[in-house]
Each structure stands twice: as structure tokens, then as C-alpha cells.
Design a protein that fits this description.
- The chain has 168 residues and is α+β, with helices and mostly antiparallel strands.
- It has two domains: 6-43, no CATH class; 47-165, no CATH class.
- The chain has two helices and nine strands; from the N terminus they run ααβββββββββ.
- It has helices at residues 6-14, 18-43; strands spanning 47-57, 61-69, 72-78, 89-98, 107-109, 117-133, 136-143, 147-156, 160-165.
- An eight-stranded antiparallel barrel has the order 1-2-3-4-9-8-7-6.
- The protein is globular, with a radius of gyration of 24 Å.
- The structure holds manganese (II) ion.
Length: 168
Amino acid sequence: MWVCRGPAYLYNIIDGRFSELRRGRRRRSMDKRVEPRESREEERVEASGAYVIQEHQATRLHYDLRLELDGVLKSWAIPKTPPTESGIRRLAVQVEDHPLEYASFEGVIPEGQYGAGSVKIWDKGQYALTSRKENKWIVEIQGDRLRGVYCLVRFKGEKNWLFFRKKD
Ligand code: MN
């Protein structure tokens, strides 16, 4: 049978049967080696956990996106309604990590305290972080309002990200 490397490989070229060898290689890579590796990549999850968006009526109304990661809630403040469809990009300003318990908080933060105003849960569920690069995270969100694959892309400075739903 064909051998793809070493002297046999050279021999096949010299013999004028290179195209047949190439066909064989392509067939093998399609049915065995490549496909299982690709599906493993798709299934890889870096982290998963709680997802929540709190509607926060503070000095200005905004929405706080929080994702459970490394024992805390990574948090971003979104000044406009979070996107339920693709094609809408929202500024998401990263703010300090919050404790996990805060994910279920609803109520009024008194005047004079950080974040004074009322907090309501706008959406909640679970999420999976499928890719985490320094400036780009891909998360799969399963909430009631937000469902699907979302991107967080850092675009300016340390704290400014864009948050949007990927096209299906
Ligand atoms: Mn807030």
C-alpha cells in the first residue's frame, strides 16, 4: 500500500502516480484524522457557570452583565439594553469583580453607597466560556432573554469592550 513519507513518497512522485497518492491522503484525512479533532475543539469549554444581567437604576439606568469565573463574578456595565439579536453591538465597560452571592441580589442600594439605586434581575441562566483570549472572549449564553453565542471584544484601553451576539 502507499506510504506517505520517506523513499516511498519520492518513488510515487517519480513513478508519475503522485495524484493518486494525494487522493489517498485526502480521503484518509477526511474519514479519520481531521474530523474527530475538529469536534473535540468545538466541545472544548474553558469555564462555565452562572450568568446574570441586573438592571440597575442608578444615576443612569444601565445593565450589569456578570459571568461566574475563577470564583468571582466578572462584571461589565452596559449603558443600553443588552442585544438579544445579532447585528447590535453594545459598549460594555468592565467594572470590578463582584462576589458570587451578588448574582441573586435584587433590591435597593441606599443613597451614599456605591451603586446607589434599585437593582432587578433582568436575565439569568448559565453560560460557557468557549474561548478566552486577552482581547476576545466567546461565551455561549443560555438565559431567558439572551440565548446563543456572544462575543466580548476589548476595543479600547483596559475596560472598554463590545458585547454582541454572533450571527447564527
Ligand atoms: Mn451597576
